[in-house]
Amino acid sequence: MTTYAVTYRRDPGYDAWLVDIDGTDDVHTFGRNLDEAATNAREAIAVTVDVPESAVELDERIDVADVDVEELVRLRDQALEAHEIYLARQRAAALRLTDAGVSRRDAARLLGVSHQRVQQLVAG
Questions:
Q1: Could you tell me the pTM of the whole model?
Q2: Which of 6, 41, 60, 112 has minimal CB crowding within 10 Å?
Q3: Residues 44/100, Cβ–Cβ less than 8 Å
Q4: Cα separation values, 7 from 14, 43, 44, Å
Protein backbone atom coordinates (compact mmCIF):
# COMPACT_ATOMS: atom_id res chain seq x y z
CA MET A 1 0.00 0.00 0.00
CA THR A 2 1.34 3.43 -0.94
CA THR A 3 0.61 6.58 1.06
CA TYR A 4 -0.10 9.85 -0.70
CA ALA A 5 -0.17 13.23 1.02
CA VAL A 6 -3.29 15.24 0.31
CA THR A 7 -4.30 18.70 1.47
CA TYR A 8 -7.93 19.74 1.79
CA ARG A 9 -8.81 23.41 1.31
CA ARG A 10 -12.25 24.92 1.68
CA ASP A 11 -13.75 26.70 -1.33
CA PRO A 12 -16.64 28.74 0.07
CA GLY A 13 -17.68 29.89 -3.40
CA TYR A 14 -18.64 26.34 -4.32
CA ASP A 15 -19.30 25.07 -0.79
CA ALA A 16 -16.80 22.30 -1.42
CA TRP A 17 -13.43 20.90 -0.35
CA LEU A 18 -10.65 21.18 -2.92
CA VAL A 19 -8.03 18.44 -2.77
CA ASP A 20 -4.40 18.97 -3.69
CA ILE A 21 -2.44 15.76 -4.10
CA ASP A 22 1.21 16.31 -3.23
CA GLY A 23 3.72 15.21 -5.81
CA THR A 24 1.32 15.64 -8.70
CA ASP A 25 0.97 18.83 -10.71
CA ASP A 26 -2.06 17.93 -12.76
CA VAL A 27 -4.18 15.87 -10.38
CA HIS A 28 -6.80 17.71 -8.34
CA THR A 29 -10.26 16.82 -7.20
CA PHE A 30 -12.96 18.02 -4.81
CA GLY A 31 -15.89 16.87 -2.69
CA ARG A 32 -18.92 18.41 -1.00
CA ASN A 33 -17.72 16.98 2.32
CA LEU A 34 -14.45 15.51 3.56
CA ASP A 35 -15.54 11.90 3.11
CA GLU A 36 -16.48 12.53 -0.52
CA ALA A 37 -13.26 14.48 -1.08
CA ALA A 38 -11.19 11.59 0.33
CA THR A 39 -13.03 9.06 -1.83
CA ASN A 40 -12.49 11.22 -4.91
CA ALA A 41 -8.80 11.68 -4.03
CA ARG A 42 -8.28 7.91 -3.75
CA GLU A 43 -10.05 7.41 -7.06
CA ALA A 44 -8.03 10.15 -8.81
CA ILE A 45 -4.73 8.75 -7.50
CA ALA A 46 -5.67 5.18 -8.44
CA VAL A 47 -6.54 6.20 -12.01
CA THR A 48 -3.41 8.34 -12.38
CA VAL A 49 -0.89 5.78 -11.11
CA ASP A 50 -2.87 2.75 -12.31
CA VAL A 51 -3.35 0.94 -9.00
CA PRO A 52 -6.51 -0.28 -7.26
CA GLU A 53 -8.17 2.22 -4.94
CA SER A 54 -7.65 -0.24 -2.09
CA ALA A 55 -3.88 0.22 -2.53
CA VAL A 56 -4.09 3.97 -1.91
CA GLU A 57 -3.70 5.32 1.61
CA LEU A 58 -4.06 9.03 2.36
CA ASP A 59 -1.96 11.17 4.68
CA GLU A 60 -4.50 13.94 5.15
CA ARG A 61 -3.88 17.57 6.02
CA ILE A 62 -6.47 20.29 6.49
CA ASP A 63 -5.77 23.89 5.50
CA VAL A 64 -8.72 25.90 6.77
CA ALA A 65 -9.35 28.79 9.19
CA ASP A 66 -5.87 28.59 10.75
CA VAL A 67 -6.94 25.53 12.74
CA ASP A 68 -4.04 23.17 13.42
CA VAL A 69 -5.92 19.88 13.18
CA GLU A 70 -2.70 17.86 13.30
CA GLU A 71 -1.79 19.42 16.65
CA LEU A 72 -5.26 18.63 18.01
CA VAL A 73 -4.94 15.01 16.89
CA ARG A 74 -1.48 14.79 18.52
CA LEU A 75 -2.81 16.27 21.77
CA ARG A 76 -5.80 13.92 21.76
CA ASP A 77 -3.54 10.92 21.21
CA GLN A 78 -1.22 12.06 24.02
CA ALA A 79 -4.20 12.54 26.35
CA LEU A 80 -5.55 9.07 25.55
CA GLU A 81 -2.14 7.53 26.17
CA ALA A 82 -1.77 9.41 29.47
CA HIS A 83 -5.26 8.27 30.51
CA GLU A 84 -4.39 4.63 29.78
CA ILE A 85 -1.24 4.96 31.90
CA TYR A 86 -3.26 6.59 34.68
CA LEU A 87 -5.83 3.78 34.66
CA ALA A 88 -3.15 1.08 34.79
CA ARG A 89 -1.37 2.78 37.68
CA GLN A 90 -4.63 3.44 39.51
CA ARG A 91 -5.50 -0.26 39.27
CA ALA A 92 -2.02 -1.26 40.43
CA ALA A 93 -2.28 1.12 43.40
CA ALA A 94 -5.72 -0.20 44.35
CA LEU A 95 -4.43 -3.77 44.23
CA ARG A 96 -1.34 -2.96 46.31
CA LEU A 97 -3.34 -1.08 48.92
CA THR A 98 -5.99 -3.77 49.32
CA ASP A 99 -3.34 -6.53 49.27
CA ALA A 100 -1.62 -4.66 52.10
CA GLY A 101 -4.83 -4.86 54.14
CA VAL A 102 -6.12 -1.33 53.51
CA SER A 103 -9.92 -1.33 53.38
CA ARG A 104 -11.62 -0.47 50.10
CA ARG A 105 -13.10 2.66 51.66
CA ASP A 106 -9.70 3.85 52.87
CA ALA A 107 -8.11 2.97 49.53
CA ALA A 108 -10.86 4.98 47.86
CA ARG A 109 -10.10 7.99 50.02
CA LEU A 110 -6.38 7.72 49.29
CA LEU A 111 -6.96 7.37 45.54
CA GLY A 112 -9.67 10.03 45.32
CA VAL A 113 -12.31 7.67 43.95
CA SER A 114 -15.40 5.93 45.31
CA HIS A 115 -15.18 2.63 47.16
CA GLN A 116 -17.24 1.15 44.31
CA ARG A 117 -14.51 2.20 41.87
CA VAL A 118 -11.88 0.53 44.05
CA GLN A 119 -13.99 -2.64 43.93
CA GLN A 120 -14.05 -2.44 40.12
CA LEU A 121 -10.30 -1.89 40.00
CA VAL A 122 -9.41 -4.84 42.21
CA ALA A 123 -11.93 -7.10 40.48
CA GLY A 124 -10.05 -6.58 37.25
A1: 0.62
A2: 112
A3: no
A4: 17, 15, 14
Contact indicator for 6, 21 with CB cutoff of 8 Å: yes
- Per-residue model confidence as pLDDT tens digits over 25-44: 788 999 999 999 999 999 99
Type of residue at 24: T
Is CATH 3.40.50.12780 what the domain over 2-66 is classified as, yes or no?
no
Domain-wise residue ranges, the chain: 2-66, 70-123
Q: What percent of the chain has pLDDT over 70?
A: 100
On whether the CB atoms of residues 69 and 17 are closer than 8 A, the answer is no
3-class SS string, the chain: CEEEEEEEEEECCCCEEEEEECCCCCCEEEECCHHHHHHHHHHHHHHHHCCCHHHEEEEEEEECCCCCHHHHHHHHHHHHHHHHHHHHHHHHHHHHHHHCCCCHHHHHHHHCCCHHHHHHHHHC
Q: How far is CA 10 from the centre of its chain?
A: 21
Measured distance between the N- and C-terminal CA atoms of the chain, rounded to whole angstroms: 39
